[in-house]
């Protein structure tokens, strides 16, 4: 389907009953010019009223291979209502392209895999994020609109974790992870708020690994830009593990880890490639370990967004023996229905972006990599897709 419109949402689903089982799939559509007057999103997974029952249980709600262009007023993909208990919620966004979004890219979408969000925050409003209130984000390209003057709001972020915990997203019984993403932002790459509370207790370590964080050298260098801004409390016995990332094109400091929160003192910052002035300076209570303050060959002005062969970062040893930089992008654009202008994919040094069963999700994140399961159903929530269950 191809659709254009000037108000409200392109697709807005309603489920006032919180029923379990079943799957809604929205695939291979093009939506453009949505929300010109009254505000609208491209795809909205909504329930009819606030309820403690999760809106999409069982096989869930899948948005895949859609193109959303020029979204004015609201996020590209979003959820509304429901308890948003993500131990049960099954809302997936896979291989979608969002280009030209006034506000956030995705809001309250638990699983975001292999998407491109290009030029979000176009309205230059307060606090726009590529992802806000997510659970897992792997293999995405997240590209924010740059600031043009001193009057532009400085609070853009690539991802906001734990924002508005009681309303938008709770972490009950689970945790969050961001891996293999490319964040090209004006502001903070990842902004971590409190992601656990007595009401919504989270479990387990959070992970920030194998991402590339790039500041935007095109804009006036008048505000702070930080790859990781850590302003959170976290569950007892859990921590954020920040390893094997590439930080480039950020002014000092490159990050503020654990600033103001002693609860974050157990977090681990280890073996990251750090290329910014006076590296490896980090602000906050944490002390980074084993940083690699080396050149990367990355040049955002030339749209060269990946670690380059021959650079100091190419052969450094990470914690798991992999090469630095995002590993996912060798064929990322070939999966997407369009190639947004000016976007060049980072290289994939390891060539490990295989999709053996051809279901659209690469093996590294597929819950059933050997058998095609295009909805990635996991009815018993054991982490193994139904097609692979004994």
Describe this structure in words.
- It is a single chain.
- By secondary structure, the chain is mainly β.
- 1% of the residues lie in helices and 29% in strands.
- It has one helix and 29 strands.
- The model is unreliable at 328-333 (pLDDT under 50).
> How far apart, in Å, are the first and last alpha carbons?
37 Å
Return the string of H and E elements.
EEEEEEEEEEEEEEEEEEEEEEEEEEEEEH
Would you report the number of β strands? 29
Radius of gyration: 20 Å
Helix content: under 10%
Q: What's the layout of helices and strands?
A:
Elements: E1 2-4, E2 11-13, E3 23-27, E4 30-34, E5 43-46, E6 60-64, E7 67-71, E8 77-80, E9 91-94, E10 97-101, E11 106-107, E12 111-113, E13 116-120, E14 129-132, E15 136-138, E16 141-144, E17 157-161, E18 177-179, E19 182-185, E20 188-192, E21 206-209, E22 212-215, E23 226-230, E24 240-243, E25 246-248, E26 255-257, E27 268-270, E28 273-275, E29 283-284, H1 332-335
Parallel strand pairs: 1-4, 2-5, 3-6, 4-7, 5-8, 6-9, 7-10, 8-11, 9-12, 10-13, 11-14, 12-15, 13-16, 14-17, 15-18, 16-19, 17-20, 18-21, 19-22, 20-23, 21-24, 22-25, 23-26, 24-27, 25-28, 26-29
Question: Summarize this, please?
Answer:
By secondary structure, the protein is an all-beta fold. Helix content is 1%, strand content 29%. It has one helix at 332-335; strands at residues 2-4, 11-13, 23-27, 30-34, 43-46, 60-64, 67-71, 77-80, 91-94, 97-101, 106-107, 111-113, 116-120, 129-132, 136-138, 141-144, 157-161, 177-179, 182-185, 188-192, 206-209, 212-215, 226-230, 240-243, 246-248, 255-257, 268-270, 273-275, 283-284.
